[in-house]
Specification:
globular, mainly alpha, single chain, 256 residues
């Protein structure tokens, strides 16, 4: 893909992803305060659509999420981040492609073309009906847990800054992007670990009802002792992750 196109596509995509995560966080914060219910990214997309009736906002969001999917596919196929063709590099690039598929599905949700049959629980139920299904679901869950742990690693080491054009940022912008980035990645890591753990449980128990999406993971936090506080903290973290996506939209290094 021509470099003149991929950079604006990626930046619009990051902004759209930021909007979705911030809405997930806002709705979770409202739920922590006893108002409303937590939701996943698809629910956040629908909530954004309810903010205005003309449909223009949803069209813009659908386009932005499709752009983010294109950026992820370009990362995977063209190795824009220089991950290489080794086992580790191919694993990371496969993750980029999987992220692209997820965000493409969100784009279809925003465009009104998504079907509920495409939910994670439906996929797990179909997989568990196959001879290899329990292994596939279990390994998927382990991969999601590992991805969650990697979010904690990125937060601790602040390696997410390596992709930012730090010289173009003021000292205050660098300081705040590091703070919100660390907080946001930790919150994202918590949700990944919960989602992955319940995928593993679904595989072990051969029961798709064990599966929890992002909204379900947040509701599980809410059900714990001091759940409102736990949910509120993670909710603010998800808003922070959305803000980090906006930082990426402005300052991320897109091309090698």
């Amino acid at each position: 893909m021509a470099s003149s196109l991929i950079e604006p596509i990626a930046r619009v995509g990051f902004a759209a992803r930021g909007a979705v995560y911030m809405m997930v966080g806002v709705l979770a914060a409202r739920a922590a305060a006893g108002q409303g219910r937590t939701t996943d990214a698809s629910g956040a997309v629908r909530a954004i659509g309810r903010l205005e009736t003309s449909g223009v906002l949803l069209v813009a969001l659908a386009l932005g999420l499709a752009f983010y999917a294109v950026w992820r596919f370009a990362q995977a196929l063209q190795d824009l981040d220089g991950k290489g063709g080794g086992v580790k590099g191919l694993t990371v690039r496969t993750g980029y492609a999987a992220s692209g598929l997820v965000h493409l599905a969100l784009a279809f949700t925003a465009g009104g073309f998504a079907r509920r049959s495409g939910s994670m629980r439906a996929w797990v139920a179909r997989s568990l009906a196959e001879p290899w299904g329990a292994w596939a679901v279990g390994l998927s869950g382990a991969a999601v847990v590992a991805a969650g742990m990697y979010q904690f690693h990125k937060a601790w080491t602040a390696t997410f800054e390596e992709q930012l054009r730090l010289r173009r940022m003021t000292a205050d912008a660098r300081r705040w992007s590091r703070r919100i980035g660390r907080f946001g990645l930790c919150a994202r890591g918590v949700t990944f670990v919960i989602i992955g753990w319940f995928l593993v449980r679904a595989a072990l128990r051969l029961n798709a009802r064990e599966v929890k999406d992002l909204g379900g993971a947040l509701r599980m936090l809410q059900a714990q002792e001091y759940g409102a506080w736990l949910l509120g903290i993670v909710a603010l973290g998800l808003v922070s992750y959305g803000l980090l996506s906006l930082v990426d939209a402005r300052y991320r290094r897109i091309l090698p």
